[in-house]
Amino acid sequence: MKTRRIGDTAVSAIGLGGMPMSIEGRPDEQRSVATIHAALEAGVTLIDTADAYHLFADEVGHNESLIARALASYGGDTSDVLVATKGGHLRPGDGTWTQDGSPAYLKQACEASLKRLGVEAIGLYQFHRPDPKVPYEDSIGAIRDLLDEGKIQQAGISNASTQQIQLANEILGGQLVSVQNQFSPRYRSSEAELQLCAVLGLAFLPWSPLGGISQAAGLGTRFDAFAEVGAAHGVSAQQACLAWMLAKAPVVIPIPGSSRPETIRDSVAAADLVLSAEEFARLDAV
Hints:
The protein is an alpha/beta fold. The protein contains 11 helices and 11 strands.
């Protein structure tokens, strides 16, 4: 598969988002492991997770542990796989999401993620979501400390504004490598952040690039242009969508969530789909 870069690391142009395998409607573990293995077999070397990807209060880190088990049971070489996880977003178990961006919590969360992933240093650790109760610079300062201590190899941020991207990069001394924001045909409000990442050379990781768990299957129905361009190439609307994202900037690395082997295989094929200038312009105008 074609590759792109997150900092000094070359990764597959399409990553795997692990969230659907651990929250509402999640499949059994056998299917989840088969999905992760299918991604690896297709050349995926970026897997995104978070300690908050779980259902119940007593299973924090469910997705991290699942990914660690799937990697351990894979028969092939996984030395080039970058597992990116996040901290600072919490799910108490009652269906709500909260934030804790305090330095003490972020360091505690990182230690717990290290143990669940079974690694000495996390390949990419991302501050999951700004906490309105904590100054942003304090939260990013904790990420900087984790870098300095060797607990994480690279640092990223998620759900960030252009101002927060610039501030984080400054606090990290130019060591920020990625920004993970929501971005899809139905959610285009991070265009400015995407373009800033392109200018700064930061990887931009669109989460829910196909519209989210409940919306991905109907993408072509809601957005005819993606279905029509996909049909012209003999591929799915979802593939056309991911190819459009890849064509927006060389720093874009979509991380579609998947819980079935066939859907991640379809997504991965988007890395080889080349759109004409006219097709790209049509999709970009949606």
